[in-house]
Amino acid sequence: MIQRSYQFRFYPTAVQMVLLAQCFGAARWVWNTALAWRSHCYKIAGEKVTGVDFSRELTWLKKIEAFAWLATIPSTVLTQALRDQDRAFANFFAKRARYPRFKKHREAASIRFQIDQRGVMNAYRAGEFLKLPGLGLLDVRWSRIPGGVPKMVTIRRDAAGRYFVAFMVEEAIQQAPVSTQSVGIDVGLKDVIITSAGQKSGNPRYLRRYQRRLKMAQRRLSRKQKGSNRWHRQKRRVARIHARISDSRKDFLHKQTTALVHDHGVIAIEDLCVKGLVRTRLAKSMSDAALGELRRQLEYKCQWHGRVLLVADRFAPTSKTCSSCGTVQAEMPLRIRDWTCPDCGAVHERDVNAAVNVLMFATGGRPEGHARGGRETPSAGVPVDLGKLAPDEARTKPECAGACHG
Question: Is 65 a catalytic residue?
């Protein structure tokens, strides 16, 4: 059993759009008012208050005529906003995040509804209908059929004006067939994924593909008077282009990672410092490739299907090492894509050779003659004894502050 999140698009009616706008505004007002109240109490009186304390004040405010509109909003929407703020303060005191900030009125917004488990059969049926308090029946496009029953539902409106419903369920996932094949993965900008078997995924470069349309749309936006109706319409057009780029990129990465996890029992990747790479001159291309998202998807999909994900040292000379004899070249400029080993005469394609070395370094093997030695390393596509490999064999280093080496 795993906890799996689902997100579906839905199309609200005109009445539901008005109700959702009211709920978004009420949740934002509760968040900002509670944040100002908590900050004031601590600065003036040195008193620490919580969301539960403001919830009691909220009950009293609903009885006042000026704030009677709060009573028309489902109570779970306001309660969940206060719970989110409590979690934000907990992250701040644990030094995991900065001090909570006030929310602005923006197109993108989200709220949460709690489903009463006592009458969940009347509110939810997978693939058929979903009813929420205060909104009624939602026109959800069920692209998949969830296996469990949700307890909390999030309604989200993105910057492009699209509405999504998201929830998490506990379900038993269908395991991928058992595979003893191993593969090493090298990532790059010409091809996002290069495997040790020589397969290349290519790089769609969605951001650069839509760059001209995005540039023209942003230029038109800059000419509009800020805050006008035309400005809001053009801003939504810009957001739609960004949404198409993001959705296309996620679809590409999901298809590639799913195929890798389905066909291989052991997957080896390189521990890249993505934060350092996006601060170089290749920042736009690195962000367009989304290498951090690629690793995140591989991690949770391997965990779901019982695969072994190994991580090679980021400082290992994967590109400069000959995968046949183990000789390490002194220099290997990026412009060199094919090279011949001076010792054994083997001809290597740079990226494929790096992928083979990633698998070799991650599994702890070294070719004969390598300075550090090691046990025999299986070559690309050769079955690996899964009992000898475990996830804790993955060797990683903390993130470096600068650009990645190796």
Answer: no
